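Newbie here. two chains, one complex. Structure please?
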Amino acid sequence: MARLEPDVRTVKEIQAAGGDTVKKCYQCATCASVCPLATEEVPFPRKQMLLGQWGFKEKLLSDPALWLCHQCGDCTVYCPRGARPGDVLGALRNMAVRELTEFKFLWTFYNKPWGLPIVFLIALVFVTLSMSFFMGGIPGIFHWDLIPSLHVEEVHILFLKLTSNVLAIDAVFIPLAGFVVVMVAIGVNRMWNGMVENAGIPAAYRMGFWSLVTTYLGPAIREVLAHSRFKECGANQWRFNGHRMLLWSFIILFFVTATVFIAADVFGFHTPWPLYNPVKILANIGAILLLYGVISIIANRSRAAAEGKLSSSYQDWFLIYLILAVGVTGLLTEILRLLHNGFYPGMYALHLMTVFMLFLSIPYSKFAHLVYRTTAYVFDLYSRDVRAQMKALAPVAAEAAAEAPGETEAEEGEASEASGEESSE
Amino acid sequence: MAYDKILVVGGGISGITAAVEAAEMEYDVYLVEKEPSLGGRVAQLRYYFPKLCPPTCGLEMNYRRIKTNPRITVYTMATVKNISGGPGNYRVTVEIAPRYVNENCTACGECEKVCQGERDNAFDFGRSKTKAIYLPHPMAFPMRYVLDKSALADGDLDRIMQACKYNAIDPNMQPQTVELEVGAIIWATGWKPYDARKLDNLGYGRFENVITNMEMERLASPNGPTGGKILRPSDQTEPRTVAFVQCAGSRDENHLPYCSYICCLASLKQSLYLAEQNQDTEIYIFYIDIRTPGRYEKFLRRAQEEARINFIKGKVAKIEEDPGSKDLIVTAEDTLSGKKVEQRVNMVVLATGMQPSLAGMELPAGVRVDENGFVEITEGMYACGCARMPLDVMTSNETATAAALKAIQTIVRG
């Protein structure tokens, strides 16, 4: 008989990460039956609570259920032991984000309150250095002669005509985007391999990256956009709208940013664009949606906390307030610019810093749920198909096994690589 | 100055036992019961543990012990209003509600025949009606009718008074107060079924065929609303598939944080009722842990042999009704297979737990209860049976005998 040893260190880690109630669970499985998202085949979070009590890190952190949970708090409300499974899964998600990525010190900065000034400092240094180098400082705030300044009206790199303020932004954000994409790719790849192995999907059913993306990513993204699973969480109705608004605002702002990037950097239509420009109108709609979404999330989360449905960790509030800061500084920048106010460049720099913090947080903060949850959706759809196929083939397989008793073990196929859908920044 | 009498509050099996045990040690006992009859919860059962005796078995023997012992004074429809003094010399005010039927009553039943007004029968948990004048239950003690004036129909009073040949009906009876002087008090106030309506995810009160385990006892009881046939409420048919939901309210910090001790056994016992009625009844017991304390483990084996029980380890947290058939769909995670199961059944029995009767009640000074309502024992104030902790009948009686002894010790010490 296999002997199981609890991993006490991991248990303590879970407890410290916000899952301090994990040990109270007595495995009655109330949670899994009240959960509207738990499926018949792979219900949660009862099993995850048990794994948490034993500290089985590998199994836990490569469990798609972590990300299929939308933390509506039904399990926490009905839990007869006050074990708060919803909060424990939240803590496990934070731990998973750390395990999946590289440069873990950045995770630490993003997930500990004392790291906040450091994260801000990183953003400050990158943005001011870049602005100093290309613009000689932040106009109206300071001028820094110490750094050699490349103060030009227009530079021509290959066929691109770039102004100094465009260069200042590109110099920071293009490498940043590249870094984030690589980190996220590493994370998604690790997550996928872990899930495939953990679920024991036979080699014969493993799929290549492209066929996975073409078969399942579309449906998964459709679910994300419609928030269909989020909505299924009956208790989540109050959060559903705010969260969906926020997601749509990110999509709009991503589209707007991409359009401006191409128009300005490639074709030389430099900003600011007039307010009646359709792209500008869309951008402003995106900004308002973002503020509406994030403010309603704050209000609803506070209400849910008061009702005892969920407790919010530092990680939760960090992301929410960072998004709020992005929205508020962005809107203020626009208003100050329209008013020809002298604080405009300073506010703009501040806005860029918050955006920097938000971008860099994608692999390290709660923001990672954007990619990991989507990956879990893809896996969920894929593994459902695999189970259905295996079930359909079960009688055939049994027959074959009966005919050839000395069958060799199926060769372990190469785990399908999935560097996954990238962040939408 | 010390008093040498004992007050027992509560006339269920524990209170009766405590009273007769003390009286047979030649101490005077007042036995106070708030209902119109002694008998308590045991009287409502089909069979009780450990030997699956019908309630008549234990109650009749004890009633005889009361009747033949002049040291016991029984007050029914009586509640303790006030307590003063301390161990050895309590003064207790007891209020007796008017029964409107005096000692002349022979329980001939003529009044009931002519009475038209009806009332919900709390003894059957509202699943039957009685007339406005009624006998509390067939094993009533005292064997005497009660009149519920609020349920009388027009002209009922004249009719029943005319029908009574013994001049037993006294509509002008007034509430009475008696002052008792006792040396010790035994709380045998027992338990009430936990309000299943508070378990909002289990559908009790919304779905007709979700019943509680105590209602199941009444259905199975020959003097119950169905004459002992277990029929599901929606269409009065025999259920072919029945799910038992264990820990309905018990072991749950949102409801009763403790284990109610007997519900697992009650469900096993009720599985035998179903098997007795129809050997092929398919039974599903959803449990967290099957708790069969001590020698009751044997009973689990017996139930497994005699009834078709499927055990599913996983608490039910969701019940839905099929509106057409009124069947129920019970959802749980089978933690042994790790799969979620949805079981369709004709009827669901919630194994609701025991809540001490004193929970949430306004209590006379000097009585201490813990946060769940169980009586805490102090010098002079003892508790037995389910007023103290959730227990079976056998253990309740043991604690009752012990409480009688402790009460006598207080008196002897003076």
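Moderator note: Confidence is low (pLDDT under 50) at residues 406-425 of chain A. The domain at 8-100 of chain A is CATH 1.10.1060.10 (Fumarate Reductase Iron-sulfur Protein; Chain B, domain 2). Thread marked as resolved.
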